[in-house]
Amino acid sequence: MNKDNKIDTKHAILLVMDYQNGIVKQVPGAEAIVDLMTDTLNEARKAGLAIGYVRVAFTDDDYKAVPETNKSFRAVAENRNMHNDSQDTQIHNLVAPHAGDVIVRKTRVGAFSTTDLDEQLKAKDINTLILAGFSTSGVMLSTIREAADWDYKIYVLEDLSIDPDQEVHDMLMQKIFPRQTHVIKQANLLDLLKA
Predict the structure, then answer these.
(1) Can you give the chain as a three-state secondary structure string?
(2) What is the count of structural domains for the chain?
(3) Which of 18, 180, 182, 33 lies closest to 89 in space, CA to CA?
(4) What's the distance, Cα to Cα, between the start and end of the chain in Å?
(5) Quick one: 73 exposed, middle or buried, by C-beta within 10 A (0-12, 13-18, 19+)?
(6) What's the pLDDT tens digit per position in 8-45?
(7) Alpha-carbon distance 27 to 135, whole Å?
(8) Strand partners for 156
C-alpha cells in the first residue's frame, strides 16, 4: 500500500452495508465477519473515522411502489418480506450504530439510488468511501459502480464482505473491483488509519 492510498479520516467514511439480522443469518461464515467488523468499528472510531450504515427495508408504501418490471424486488413486495419493522431488517446488534452515525434505509440493491446518502456525504465533505457488505455481488457491486461514477475514492474491505458464492466473491474482488477501487484487507485499513 503506497502513500497515495493513505486515508484522510476527515474526508472518509466506513460504510457498513446490509449487516442486517435476516441477511447475516442466511450466509454461512457470516458471524466471523460480524465479529471482525466489531473490532474494525472500534478501531475506526478511535481513529476519528466517520461511520455509516446502509440497510434494506420496506414500508407498506414502498411495497406498493415496486413495479412489476423489477424482477428482484417484485417478489419481496408481493410476499411483504423485509418490512421496516421486522427484526430481520435491523442492523446486527454487534455492529449497531452510535449516535451521530450516518444511517440510510434503501429499497433497492445499491446504497445510493433510493437514499439521500450522496447528499449526506457531501454535507460532511466526504470524498472517500470504505465499503464492506453482504453481499459482494449485490450491495457491494451496485454501490461501487455508482460511487465510482460519482468520483468517490473507494476502498473495498475484502475480508469484511461476503457472497453466498465464493467464486463470484473472488472474481469480483480480484478482477472487477480493482478497476475502480483499492481492494484491501481489514489489517491494511487499520495500518492506513494509523499512517
Answers:
(1) CCHHHCCCHHHEEEEEECCEHHHHCCCCCHHHHHHHHHHHHHHHHHCCCEEEEEEECECHHHHHHCCCCCHHHHHHHHHCCCECCCHHHCECHHHCCCCCCEEEEECCCCCCCCCCHHHHHHHCCCCEEEEEEECHHHHHHHHHHHHHHCCCEEEEEHHHCECCCHHHHHHHHHHHHHHCCEEECHHHHHHHHHC
(2) 1
(3) 18
(4) 11
(5) buried
(6) 999 999 999 999 999 999 988 899 999 999 999 999 99
(7) 9
(8) 131, 183
d(CA 169, CA 186): 16
The CATH number covering residue 38 comes to: 3.40.50.850
How far apart, in whole angstroms, are the C-alpha atoms of residue 87 and residue 90? 5
Number of neighbours of residue 32 by Cβ within 10 angstroms: 11
Kindly state the cell numbers that stand for 90. 435491523
What size, in residues, is the chain?
Answer: 195
* Dist. CA 39–CA 87, nearest whole Å: 23
Q: Which residues contact 114 (CB under 8 A, 6 or more apart)?
A: 106, 107, 108
Cell of 112: 445510493
Question: In the Cβ-directed half-sphere of 87, how many Cα atoms lie within 13 Å?
Answer: 2
Which residue segment(s) compose the domain that 42 sits in? 3-194
Determine the Cα angle at 165 with ends 104 and 23, to 5°. Answer: 35
Express each pLDDT in 95-132 by its tens digit.
999 999 999 999 999 999 999 999 999 999 999 999 99
